[in-house]
Design goal:
Blueprint lengths: L1 E3 L12 H8 E2 L8 E6 L5 E5 L6 E2 L15 E7 L4 E5 L2 E5 L4 E4 L6 E5 L11 E7 L7 E3 L5 E5 L8 E7 L10 E7 L10 E3 L3 E8 L7 E7 L2 E7 L4 E4 L6 E4 L4 E8 L8 E3 L6
Parallel strand pairs: 1-3
Antiparallel strand pairs: 2-20, 3-4, 4-11, 5-10, 6-9, 6-11, 7-8, 7-10, 9-12, 13-14, 14-15, 15-22, 16-23, 17-20, 17-22, 18-19, 18-21
Cofactor: Zn(2+)
Enzyme class: isomerase
Family: Belongs to the KduI family.
């Protein structure tokens, strides 16, 4: 488990491209036959990727979280961004297709990932995990792709028509603090969020997926009056501290998983920053 310490906004102006990427970009989460993870001290979120191929993979604890069992004091949302697979939680198996979501509550003892068609046309499942500390337990709950709370947002005239599906949130699958969903851009739309915003009470992470290999998302970050950008490829994640805006535009259509942890779960608790005011 890679560990990254929290950062403050006054560090950003002095960082070069490599410095920005090393602190906020999370590449190489998805490696065949492995579970890889990054712990950020921003709200102590853990981002992980699991790609089971010829054998199942277990999600286990690590010294960085001082726990032999990953879920001893944590909860997580899991989205499959690859081929079909299964997630088994303490003996109960869930069939997880592309874009589906599983919430796993605190206290789960054994969580195992497997692929259904690892060697076939669909390829292996690619499970993305976003986890945060939890003070109590909520039941493990599965939601199939597109079956959460669906919001149609944006306008094709501003190139940000998108379908936002909330899975784990205050009016959906219950959790202590993890909030998670998937946003899919409509054909011809490239902006994922506009206006850009911050929410000073939560850390957010974006995982971009279904992006062509030769395409990139230009992800805006930093203070609204001191923005920087990251060029992000398919299945790469961005850590967005509470003080940072997060918005992006792609060179092709794409989807992304958004996940948050922090003081509250209110979807609309955000501070918008019109593009005309940003620098």
């Amino acid at each position: 488990m890679e560990q990254r310490y929290a950062t403050s906004p006054d560090q950003v102006p002095g960082l070069d491209t490599a410095g920005l990427r090393s602190r906020y970009l999370v590449p190489d989460l998805f490696v065949a036959g492995e579970v890889r993870s990054v712990l950020t001290h921003h709200d102590r979120m853990v981002l992980a990727g699991a790609v089971p191929t010829d054998a199942p993979l277990d999600l286990v604890g690590a010294p960085e979280i001082r726990s032999e069992q990953f879920f001893a004091r944590r909860e997580a949302g899991i989205v499959n961004v690859g081929g079909p697979g299964t997630i088994t939680v303490d003996g109960t198996t869930y069939d997880a297709g592309h874009g589906s979501c599983l919430y796993v509550g605190r206290g789960a003892e054994k969580v195992t990932f497997a692929s259904t068609d690892a060697a076939g046309e669909a390829g292996p499942a690619r499970f993305y995990v976003a986890s945060a500390p939890a003070h109590t337990s909520y039941p493990t709950t599965f939601v199939a792709a597109g079956e959460g709370t669906v919001r149609e947002l944006g306008d094709p005239l501003t190139s940000n028509r998108r379908t936002l599906t909330q899975y784990i949130h205050e009016n959906g699958v219950r959790s202590c603090q993890v909030v998670m969903g998937v946003t899919q851009l409509h054909p011809g739309s490239m902006w994922n969020t506009m206006p850009a915003h911050t929410h000073d009470r939560r850390t957010e992470a974006y995982l971009y997926f279904d992006l062509p290999a030769d395409a990139r998302v230009v992800h805006l970050m930093g203070l609204p009056d001191e923005t920087r950008h990251l060029l992000v490829g398919n299945e790469e994640a961005v850590i967005s501290p509470s003080w940072s805006v997060h918005s992006g535009v792609g060179t092709a259509s794409y989807s992304f998983v958004w996940a948050m942890a922090g003081e509250n779960q209110a979807f609309d608790d955000m501070d918008g920053h019109p593009i005309t005011d940003m620098r």
